[in-house]
Design brief:
This protein is an alpha/beta fold. About 35% of the residues lie in helices and about 15% in strands.
Length: about 375
């Protein structure tokens, strides 16, 4: 099979879909790998290293798409890429269709085979290709939130860990999944007081068992959320509905109950955000302020640490890339139920029901 690795062109996205090690494995198994020139530089992988691993370097993104049976990348195609995607071409990447009707319609029109990292699902319900980026984003949420609590950037002027004689900052985490647990670890490590909320008591029991005493758990309800937002300095949104839109747990009206300079970090922004005032931002312009509340809603948070993120991502995607390349998508998905969950759009039809539910399209596009 001919596999293409284009350079990511989303704002400040420095990750790359495949490392030289991945190229070596594919070439060693008889496949051809095209890598766009400088595609890996942001992650510290240069063209010469890809060539040594057996890749063919192509100059333009158009060349990569035109030459490849399968595209392996990191982020969803953006508008400039829509017309480059060919019928029957496999596109293996993060899509997050439920948050973008335009992207969904474009991929339907393309007649491509869209396999989404974020919906590949193991037997136990875990999401193996989303987990490493959720781990990065959860940890980064505290790192970024701590920075934006500083007064020069309109935060409350709080040091999360406090100092002797001064109480530490307070962090509220919505969701006890991978993002929430990783955020709690980081915040606890800084010495902050952490409250983590979820509707899943099994997850809350797990968090209660593994976290230190200054991390407390509480059942998530509108009443409890409204109570805690009044006293917490940093609020992390880490809620996930597999393949669907995130629920709006914090409304615009709730902002008035928060103290000026409170920081909101919505890690669920890829799925539409779990805060009503969320709108996607970039690393170039990461924050905005509404009612004196600082919002950080960068849609590709792990892109800021591309070396770590690329290695973490490709560690888990490569085995699936090899299956797709060796067997073709139909046989690979027939033999691997986890990979089959990744099928979102196939030749102009949606095959993942949460997408149609997000847009209320009924059965028009559903296969």
């Amino acid at each position: 099979m001919k596999i293409g690795v284009p350079k990511e062109i989303k704002n400040n996205e420095n990750r790359v879909g495949m490392t030289p090690a991945g190229v070596f494995e594919l070439v060693n198994q008889g496949h051809t790998v095209y890598v766009q020139s400088t595609a890996g530089e942001g992650s510290g992988f240069f063209d010469e290293v890809y060539q040594e691993a057996g890749a063919i370097i192509l100059e333009t993104i158009q060349d990569v798409y035109q030459s490849s049976d399968m595209i392996v990348k990191v982020k969803e195609p953006i508008q400039e890429e829509y017309d480059l995607i060919q019928p029957n071409q496999i596109v293996f990447t993060y899509f997050h269709f439920a948050s973008s009707e335009a992207l969904t319609l474009a991929m339907l029109k393309s007649n491509a085979v869209c396999i989404a990292y974020e919906t590949v699902e193991d037997e136990d319900g875990t999401l193996p290709l989303l987990t490493p980026m959720s781990e990065v984003a959860g940890r980064m949420a505290i790192q970024q939130g701590a920075k934006y609590l500083e007064k020069p950037i309109k935060g409350r002027g709080i040091l999360l860990g406090g100092v002797p004689g001064v109480t530490p900052g307070k962090v509220l985490i919505l969701g006890a999944g991978v993002v929430g647990v990783q955020a709690a670890k980081m915040a606890a490590g800084l010495g902050a007081h952490v409250t983590i909320m979820d509707v899943n008591m099994k997850r809350l029991r797990y968090v209660n068992d593994i976290m230190p005493s200054h991390v407390v758990t509480e059942y998530s309800s509108v009443y409890n959320i409204k109570k805690h937002i009044q006293t917490h300095d940093l609020i992390i949104g880490g809620v996930l509905l597999k393949g669907g839109k995130a629920p709006k747990l914090i409304t615009r009206a709730m902002l008035k109950d928060m103290r000026p300079g409170t920081v909101l970090v919505d890690v669920a922004v890829d799925q539409g955000g779990c805060m009503e005032t969320t709108k996607a931002t970039t690393h170039e312009d990461p924050t905005f302020i509404i009612d004196d509340i600082v919002h950080y809603c960068v849609a590709n948070m792990p892109g800021a640490v591309p070396y770590t993120s690329t290695l973490a991502l490709t560690n888990v995607t490569l085995p699936y890339v090899l299956k797709l390349a060796n067997k073709g998508w139909e046989k690979a998905c027939a033999e691997d139920a986890s990979l089959a969950y990744g099928l979102n759009i196939v030749n102009g039809k949606i095959v993942y029901k949460e997408i149609t539910e997000a847009f209320e399209w009924g059965v028009e596009y559903y296969a």
